[in-house]
Structures are given as structure tokens and as C-alpha cells.
Design goal:
Keywords: Iron, Metal-binding, Monooxygenase, Oxidoreductase. By secondary structure, the chain is mostly loops. Helices cover 13% and strands 10% of the residues. A two-stranded antiparallel sheet has the order 1-4. A two-stranded antiparallel sheet has the order 2-3.
Length: 102
């Protein structure tokens, strides 16, 4: 929980995450975005959203375990997963095929 809260509270990405080029047309919240458009994810704004993170300016690792917080997910033994943190970026990830898959 402490690692996730550290990533949320003071993310290393700040406002400098890498832009991504859309591989197909997309619609986001009613807005049409053309294929080939560059999309920039402002990770620090997402991680400081007061609706998702009440008391966003305070360091509170317990927000991931407390049922009253929107960040709480069940079961606590499975969540939170550090790898799923937006602090690591928001791009689609494609794994390379393993040599044994050939």
C-alpha cells in the first residue's frame, strides 16, 4: 500500500509521460479521435483527482484498504497491484512472443 501511495502522491512521471499515436479511430467520452492522433496522458492530474483520491494532498497508504475510499477494491489480498498503477503509464502493452511459442 505504501508503494502505491508513494507512486500516487509524488509520481515520478509528473507531466512528462510519453505521447502515444492511435492505431485506429476512437471515441472517448463522446469525442471522436482520429487514427494517427497523438494522445498525451497527464498522469499527475489523474493521480491527484479528488473524486478518486479524497484528501489528495495527504500521504495515506490506508486509502487502498479503507472501504470508504474509491480506491478500495476487493478482495484486499488481490489488490492493489502495483503493476496496474497508472503511475507506470496508460499505454496498451504488447508482449513479445516467447521463443517456446514458435
Amino acid at each position: 500500500m505504501t508503494v502505491l501511495e508513494t507512486l500516487r502522491h509524488r509520481t515520478v512521471y509528473a507531466d512528462i509521460s510519453v505521447s502515444h499515436k492511435l492505431s485506429q479511430d476512437d471515441v472517448y467520452e463522446g469525442y471522436f479521435v482520429d487514427k494517427g492522433s497523438l494522445v498525451h496522458t497527464n498522469i499527475s492530474i489523474i493521480l491527484q483527482n479528488p473524486k478518486q483520491h479524497p484528501g489528495k494532498d495527504s500521504f495515506n497508504p490506508g486509502r487502498y484498504l479503507d472501504l470508504s475510499y474509491p480506491t478500495h477494491r476487493e478482495p484486499p489480498s488481490d489488490y492493489p497491484k502495483v503493476q496496474e498503477s497508472i503511475a507506470f503509464g496508460a499505454a496498451r502493452v504488447q508482449a513479445l512472443p516467447s521463443p517456446s511459442a514458435a
